[in-house]
Write a structure and sequence with these properties.
The protein starts with a helix and ends in a 6-residue tail after the last helix. The chain has 226 residues and is mainly alpha-helical. The model has no long low-confidence stretch (mean pLDDT 91). α3 packs antiparallel against α4. It has a domain of 121 residues: Tetratricopeptide repeat domain (Serine Threonine Protein Phosphatase 5, Tetratricopeptide repeat). The chain has twelve helices and no strands.
């Protein structure tokens, strides 16, 4: 639904002022636009971002939540709220917002990985597993498949389900062109079959490798995060 001509003019003025660095005047213009059309989710999100930049968190959250009342799947509002709740250490709320973004943008791998990180941080393994399985399907770069496997292996390591971790590690080696799964497989083999004469990596080593794999996968998709 398009806004009225007067609202559109005010929005154009607000965005022009923002480009010119006139932040305070831009903020006032966005407020006028919202007065003309309170349900303009895009303007509400823009104003929310300006309030966040000014350090007015409560006002920002109010505008972002108002935007979601009109557009429940507005990704920009949900992403901003995810970051706000993360900074407040309200990780459950941050994950709720991140999962909503991931569901509304199934092809956005970076957003999905952000949600997976939060799920792992909270120990919510079922949700993390569902995300990595979806990522494995959605990420159509063949050389990226190993990263989704690594995420699934990390979950099974944390659960200490070693047989399942072994199956996943074997599958990962088949698509791993750089040998990044070698140490992971060696560690899991020792958990299933016992230690051998050859020293195996420690659990800390393996968890560090898997965390780095997640970081690298997210870096490869960072440009898609809106």
């Amino acid at each position: 639904m398009s806004g009225t001509a007067s609202e559109q003019q005010v929005l154009e003025e607000a965005r022009a002022l923002l480009e010119e660095g006139e932040v305070d005047r831009a903020r006032d213009a966005f407020r006028r636009a919202i007065e003309l059309r309170p349900e303009d989710a895009s303007a509400l999100v823009d104003l929310g971002h300006l309030e966040l930049a000014a350090g007015r968190k409560d006002e920002a959250v109010g505008y972002l939540e108002q935007a979601l009342e009109y557009e429940p799947d507005n990704a920009a509002a949900l992403l901003a709220l995810t970051e706000v709740r993360r900074r407040e250490s309200r990780f459950d709320d941050a994950l709720t917002a991140a999962l909503r973004v991931a569901e509304s943008r199934p092809d956005d791998i970076a957003t999905a990985l952000d949600a997976a990180d939060l799920a792992l941080e909270l120990g919510r393994m079922d949700e993390a597993e569902a995300i990595f399985r979806r990522v494995r399907t959605a990420d159509d770069e063949p050389e990226h498949e190993v990263y989704a496997y690594h995420g699934l292996i990390e979950i099974e390591v944390r659960r200490e389900r070693w047989r399942r971790a072994l199956d996943l590690a074997v599958d990962a080696t088949r698509v791993d062109r750089l040998g990044a799964t070698t140490d992971v497989l060696a560690f899991v083999v020792t958990q299933v079959f016992g230690a051998s004469e050859r020293p195996a990596p420690t659990r800390d080593d393996v968890e560090r490798l898997l965390a780095l794999s997640r970081t690298e996968h997210r870096r490869l998709h960072a440009g898609t995060l809106g």
